[in-house]
Amino acid sequence: MPNGEFVVTPWQVDGVIDYDKLIKRFGTQRIDPAMRKKIVEAAGQDHFMLRRGVFFSHRDMGGIIDLHKKSKPFFVYTGRGPSGATHIGHLVPWIFAKWLQDRFGVNVYFQLTDDEKFFSKKGLSLDDTMGLARENALDFVALGFDPAKTKIVIDTQDIARLYPIAAQIAKRINFSNTKAVFGFGGETNIGMIFYTAIQSAMCYIEDAPVLIPLGVDQDPHFRLTRDVAPLLKKPKPALIHNMMMPPLHGGGGKMSSSESNSAIFTTDSPGDVKRKINKHAFSGGRPDIDEHRRLGGNPDIDIAYQYLRMFFEPDDAKLEEIRADYASGRMLTGELKAILIERVNEYLAAHQEARERARDHLDEYGLGP
Ligand code: TRP
């Protein structure tokens, strides 16, 4: 990508994302302090990902909070395209969905789009993506969703429930609309062209308005859903967008399953985590120790610091201490990385245990054998 340029679509994220520009380009609303206050008050609790702007943008979030204040129901929906192992970037909207369930007592639906990844990825068979869907489901269940209020949907398994809704949606989206939104061309397979109707169908799986926490790259699908909603006499889905987790190497794009050194996977061993962070995490430190001690590091571009801020250090006081020490030069890059490695391995040890336990509980979330 030429300097300053970036692309964000459901199938490609490239370049260093300028989130202010992206808000304008997509036509979403920034989560300003007033909106944050509104969410936090309704939830009765703050969330560090909200406070630190990891969730930075929305569509119609205010409407959802107003519904809640009038004791009217809404539900939450998010999903995953099973194209490989789950990495920590995938967990961000799921963690937020769990928080929404805890704070608002809402039902949560999780869609695994094995059809989509079969359509969009050259190297994957349908058997591959169907298998990966079940593996990815373990990471979702490991986060502790209430089985009585949570349902996992796998497209190829649950299509009978989705198809009547998808058909209603598909009839109202024409080829020019999808082409304009996704940039499809004559060589695009027709599975891809229809697919957006399947992802949209989940918005109407319950007869109540939906709120979708999602990586901002998924916004284009729901722009189409929002356009057709009035034609179906249905509410427009409300969205709350998170920033993409940057890749370990800190260059543009996002953490990606298909680039194993860009990502920390939920199944990585402590040794993997240590090696990847020490070897690949882009540092905002100075080239030599003397200079670093004198001028300090730059936490804004330092990936280890950014992962602590976005995910692994929810405690503001601790994070601020790390930032100040690093920026002043008291803390060296190796020391900062050591903190991240410890926090990631603590997190993953607990997650991996919960993930293994989840194998025996998938049926409670509606998955067949
Ligand atoms: N298309 C998404 C992906 O590739 C998966 C997905 C389906 C999704 N429904 C969603 C993501 C709703 C966010 C919200 O990962």
Describe this structure in words.
- The protein folds into two domains: 7-243, 3-Layer(aba) Sandwich (Rossmann fold), CATH 3.40.50.620; 261-357, Tyrosyl-Transfer RNA Synthetase (Orthogonal Bundle).
- It has 369 residues and is α/β, with parallel strands linked by helices.
- It is built from 16 helices and nine strands.
- The chain is 50% helix and 11% strand.
- Helix 14 packs parallel to helix 16.
- The strands form two sheets. The protein has a seven-stranded mixed sheet, sandwiched between helices. It has a two-stranded antiparallel sheet with strand order 1-2.
- It is globular and about 65 Å long.
- Bound molecules: tryptophan.
- Tryptophan binds at residues 10, 78-81, 111, 113, 116, 199, 212, 214, 218.
What order do the helices and strands come in, and which of them pair?
Layout (H helix, E strand, L loop, with lengths): L6 E3 L2 E3 L4 H8 L2 E2 L2 H11 L4 H4 L3 E5 L1 H9 L5 E6 L7 H17 L3 E5 L1 H7 L5 H16 L8 E5 L4 H12 L4 H8 L7 H12 L8 E6 L3 H14 L5 E5 L27 H11 L8 H7 L7 H10 L3 H13 L4 H26 L11
Parallel strand pairs: 5-6, 5-8, 6-7, 8-9
Antiparallel strand pairs: 1-2, 3-4, 4-9
The structure holds tryptophan.
Tryptophan binds next to strand 5 and strand 8.
List keywords for this structure.
369 residues, alpha/beta, Rossmann fold, Tyrosyl-Transfer RNA Synthetase, 2 domains, 7-stranded mixed β-sheet, binds tryptophan
Sheet with most strands: strand arrangement: 3-4-9-8-5-6-7
Helix content estimate: 40-55%
CATH level 3 topology of the largest domain:
Rossmann fold
β-strand number: 9
Uncertain runs:
none
| Average pLDDT for all residues | 97
Helical/strand content category: alpha/beta
Radius of gyration: 21 Å
The major pleated sheet works out as: 7 strands, mixed
Can you tell me the number of structural domains? 2
Which molecules are bound besides the chains? Answer: tryptophan
Shape: globular
Intertermini distance = 44 Å
